[in-house]
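Exercise 3.2. Students should predict the tertiary structure of the chain below and write it as structure tokens, then compare their answer with the key that follows.

Predict this chain's 3D structure.
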Amino acid sequence: MTGLATEDDRLRIMHGGPFYELMARLGMRKRGRRAFVLASICWMVPIFILLATRGGPGAVPFLHDWGAWAKFLIAPALLTLAEKPISFAIDECLAMLFRVPLVTSQSTPDARRALRDAKARTAAAFPELVCLLLAVTASAINTANFLGGGAPAWAAYDGGLSLSGSWCLAVGNTIYWFLLTRLIWKHIVWSRFLSKVARCHLRLVVTHPDGHGGLGFIGLYPTGYGLFTLATSFAVAAGVGHILQRQTVTPGLFMAVCAVWLVVVAIYFALPLVPVASQVSRLKRKAILLSLKKVTDFERAGERKTLGENAFEDQEEIQAGAGEFHDVKPIYLASMKMSPLLLNKKNILPVLAPALLPLLVVGAFYLPYSELGPIVKRLLLL
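Answer key:
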């Protein structure tokens, strides 16, 4: 036990792996500098190319393209800066999990093994290679779309791709998709760790004040994903904006698009919590069954003592005589109030708000402000 207690409780999910080592060798371990460099490569270089080949007017379509701003400037910067708050939120959850502790002594070795496995996965080379292949595939698909006539004005030249368009597809688009898929992989690593912890014996208690048996703190991990959600939402909003340019926009249509995206975001953060929530649900069900009989016996004994008999008598109970009964009503009431839904309105709003903001920016171009207010209130359940 002493050796286990001295182990590092942190996952440090963003450390390790080929990309992390490459950035360290290039002197870009600091996320602020890395965000600036990546955004410059993805966004500033195409502008310089356009200015050099077409002059000032040639860069105007690029500056008016929402997709270029979202995928080549905002997303690379925010996805890079998002690493620190994500890692901090996950490590805070792990600190409480192991230091309270919420894992029983017989399951502590299993939980520690799950943490070591998660550290190995987050530093593995193969998943990042897969992320790179997915990014290259996404760029290839976009290239085929551009060559098929779907290229914006700044990316097309004489029926083919311009130099700026080729750069954005080969470099900017690949960097965007690699950063995005890499963070999704880190999310999968966290999900698998929680799944293994959920199979351990946990020290949960039904009367815990958090209303989730003591595991309520795990539902707070999405608060570290605000920048990640904002980055992906800007990319989605840019795509929605391109679609809305060609269709008649109504408040109902816009609200439906926003609602679908918010549901996707909520599911993304709720899925890792499902195995843990099943443990809370199991605790709730078991506590209700254990306390219900004792509550009934205690209350019937009090009724007999006060009235001299029960309104609904049980002959076997009368023959058994008086026994020792304990008031477990607080446990029963706590079990009835306990919720297995670790993701609720309080901890999901910090990610739903940045998920909705870019869509509202796009909607402001097509809908009056007086109609956007009620949409926001309905979507965020205010």
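Discussion points: The first strand starts at residue 156 and ends at 157. Residues 11-105+122-179 form one domain.
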